[in-house]
Each structure stands twice: as C-alpha cells, then as structure tokens.
Design goal:
Number of domains: 3
CATH superfamily of the largest domain: Aspartate/ornithine carbamoyltransferase
Bound molecules: phosphoric acid mono(formamide)ester
Number of helices: 9
Structural class: alpha/beta
Order of helices and strands: HEHEHEHEHEHEHEEHEHEE
Distance between the termini: 33 Å
CATH class of the largest domain: Alpha Beta
CATH topology of the largest domain: Rossmann fold
Strand order of the largest sheet: 7-6-5-8-9
Length: about 350
C-alpha cells in the first residue's frame, strides 16, 4: 500500500511521472473523465482549508469519482473522543482513498498505518504538506522549464510553515538547487528539515529580504502562521516581518517567479498580482491537476497491504504539545536516530531531550 505522508514517500521518478500526467490532464481532460468511476475519496479535514480540500474534491469529481467527508472536527465523531486510528479504520469501510488534514503533527501517519486504503497527508500541524509541494513543483516546472539549478528564496515563517518543509525536501533532490532562507531568527527552519536534506543542497540564511533579491529564480513567500503561535504578542510582533510590494521587485530578475501557497494575509501586496512574475493563482490551479495525478497513482498502486509502520525505539517521551501523541494517549512514544545522530519522534520529528 502506498500512502503519502511525507513528500519523501514519493521518488523523484514518481514526481516526474505525476508532472507529466498533470500536464496531460490539462491538455486532454476528457481522457481522464471516467478514470475513477465508482471510486470514493474521503476528505477528513480536522482543520480549515479552502484550496486543499476543494481542489481534492474537484480533482476526484473531474476523474469521474465521488467524494464523502467532513470539513471540521466538530462535525465528526472526533468531537466525541474517537481516535485517529479508529477513524481511519472506519473510513476504510466506506471509501477507496483518504485525504486528511489535522492540526496534530503525525496524525495522517497514524491514519495511514491503521487504514486499509491509501492515505494522503493534506497538512499536519506545522510539519508536512506534501500535496502543496506537488502544486509547487508543477508550477516551477511549467514556469521555468526545469526543477534543477535554481536559486530559491523562501521567505517568512520557516519554522511553522509546513509547505516550506515539504518543498525543501522535494527540491533538494534535484541537482544544483540553492536555498536562500529569509526569516526572523525566531522563525528559522527546524533542524530536522536540514537533517533530512543532508549535503544534497546549499543553504544560506538571512533575515534581509532584499539581500539576495537579484539572485532569485523563484521567490516563495509564506504567511506567518498565526494559528501555530502559543504567544499572541509574539505573533503580533512578527506578523509583518516581510511585505512584498512592487518597489521591492525592481532589482529582481525579469524571469523570476513569485509563488505563495496561499492564503496570504498581507505579505504580498495585491499590487504585485498584476506583475507577470506573480504565479500564485496559477499555482492553486496546478494543485488540482497534481492531486488528480496523485489520486490516479495511488489507486493504481493499491495492493491492499497496510502502509508500513516506522520502527522506532522507546525510552523517550515526546514533549511537543502539537504532536499527535500529546492527545492520543494509547500511541506508544517511539524515536528514530537521524543522520546527525539525534533521536527524533517518529510522529512529529521533534528532538528527544
Ligand atoms: N495552501 C493551502 O494549504 O491552502 P488551504 O489551507 O486553503 O488548503
């Protein structure tokens, strides 16, 4: 059984094949209109969404399939205390594939190891968002004609911005990419992301958006993630750290492309929307095409076997309050050793200490 919890669950060959499929779907939608006839997608959204949920649903309808699900935890039996594991087992009786968003990191992984159908992580806390990365990859490929040898500026909330973590993991697997990480010191990229990448890509860190503006091939703006802050004063202090306005683009390359996973708050002025380099609305359309390609891919691979559980070691307790183990007490704490020798929780990747 193939599930996609982390973008690393997909090989580079699979990513490249899905990009080809998405481009073909865009050119010949009629050829795909019946490909999922009789199949059901369950969208289990325990956290708000516009793009991810609706594009998954549109994707399944455009493949000829049907959709069931819920858009908030309060309309599911999670509100009565049902576990993620039981929810996954139950939904496996009703659907052929699950897309799950959850505020707790590791929840879609728990669903995947308990379901008997493929599970797609549609965003778990501040951890991963692999299908946003699929949208990002198709956008970069269509706009720049390649996924390698690019200088990628990533700006904003690199700590809690799950789309950033998945994007770096994906783009680092293509040769010659360089990342310029632009954030306030408080919102720097978590070390587990760099640990996953190892020496496959070069990183430069700065807090100055303009320092490398003339070098970027891709400028990936992100929102400061209000919902992940425990301290509201800290959010208010950091929320306007970076605001992209037309005057800031004067030194940027003419063929640079501006991406943003959206929603934006005010980190990109609406005056930038008319700039030919702005791609964030095309990116949302690309998300639907890649989700169609992913649904097809996972349904074709479904062999009925369970998604394998990661073998971890016990002996530590995860102290991350946003890890799924913090609310689902029956889950056993387990940690795995990274390339840097540090033990991290198998659910949320936070360090054991
Ligand atoms: N990019 C993204 O995940 O948007 P939604 O939260 O609207 O799904």
């Amino acid at each position: 059984m193939k599930s996609v919890i982390d973008i690393l669950d997909l090989s580079v060959e699979e990513l490249d094949d899905m990009i080809k499929t998405a481009i073909d779907i865009s050119a010949h939608p009629d050829r795909y209109a019946d490909r999922c006839r009789g199949k059901k997608l369950a969208t289990l959204f325990f956290e708000p969404s516009t793009r991810t949920r609706l594009s998954f649903e549109a994707a399944m309808y455009e493949l000829g399939g049907n959709v069931i699900g819920f858009s908030e935890a309060n309309s599911s039996s999670a509100s009565k205390g049902e576990s993620v594991a039981d929810t996954a087992k139950i939904v496996s009786c009703y659907a052929d594939i699950i897309a799950m968003r959850h505020p707790k990191e590791g929840a879609p992984y728990v669903a995947a190891i308990n379901a008997s159908i493929p599970v797609i992580n549609a965003g778990d806390g501040g951890h991963h968002h692999p299908t946003q990365t699929l949208a990002d990859l198709l956008t970069v490929y269509r706009e720049r004609g390649r996924l390698n040898d690019l200088t990628i500026g990533i700006v904003g909330d690199l700590k809690y911005g799950r789309t950033v973590h998945s994007l770096i993991n994906a783009m680092a697997r293509y040769n010659g990419n360089k990342f310029v990480l632009v954030s306030p010191p408080e919102l720097k990229l978590p070390d587990y992301v760099k640990n996953d990448v190892g020496d496959k890509a070069e990183f430069i860190e700065t807090s100055d958006l303009m320092e490398y503006m003339d070098k970027f091939d891709i400028l990936y703006m992100t929102r400061i993630q209000r919902e992940r802050f425990a301290d509201r004063d800290e959010y208010n202090r950091l929320k306007d750290s970076y605001i992209l306005t037309p005057d800031k683009l004067t030194t940027a390359k003419k063929d640079m492309r501006i991406l943003h996973p959206l929603p934006r708050v005010n980190e990109i002025s609406v005056k930038v929307d008319d700039d030919d380099r702005a791609c964030y609305f095309k990116q949302a359309l690309n998300g639907k095409l890649m989700r169609m390609a992913l649904i097809l891919h996972l349904l074709e691979l479904n062999d009925g076997k369970k998604f394998p559980a990661i073998k971890g070691e016990s002996g530590y307790v995860c102290k991350n309050p946003t890890c799924i183990t913090s609310t689902e007490q029956e889950l056993e704490n387990a940690f795995k050793k990274g390339k840097d020798g540090v033990y991290r929780c198998i659910y949320c990747d936070k360090r054991a200490d």
